[in-house]
Amino acid sequence: MEMIKSAEAVPGKNSDDCKTLEYSFKDKEMDLGIATITNRFPEEGYCINLICKELIYVLEGNGKLVFEDKTVSFTKGDAILIDKNEKYYYDTEYCVISMSCTPAWSPDQHKLVK
């Protein structure tokens, strides 16, 4: 058993509009992060995870998740599974999401693309 207290979560940011808290268990199979998104993210183009699947749970707010071939609206309490290699961006004024990735997320496998 391992536990990370909220005061031990590592703050970060992907942009001025996407602030994160990382709960890193140093487990290569899964991870947990919380993101507060306050505008379109990324500002242009798409995000893509080359290796991991990402499970999103919406804690607060609402918005849209835009993929190359579809758009899904989300609100508090919704869950979304993003498969590896799917291009997407967030279109929101405000949301807080929980993200769990398998295998664990790493910056080198996450790309911003046009």
UniProtKB/TrEMBL annotation:
Cupin type-2 domain ranges (all copies): 54-90
Protein's UniProt name: Cupin domain-containing protein
Taxonomic source organism: Candidatus Merdicola faecigallinarum
Domain of life: Bacteria
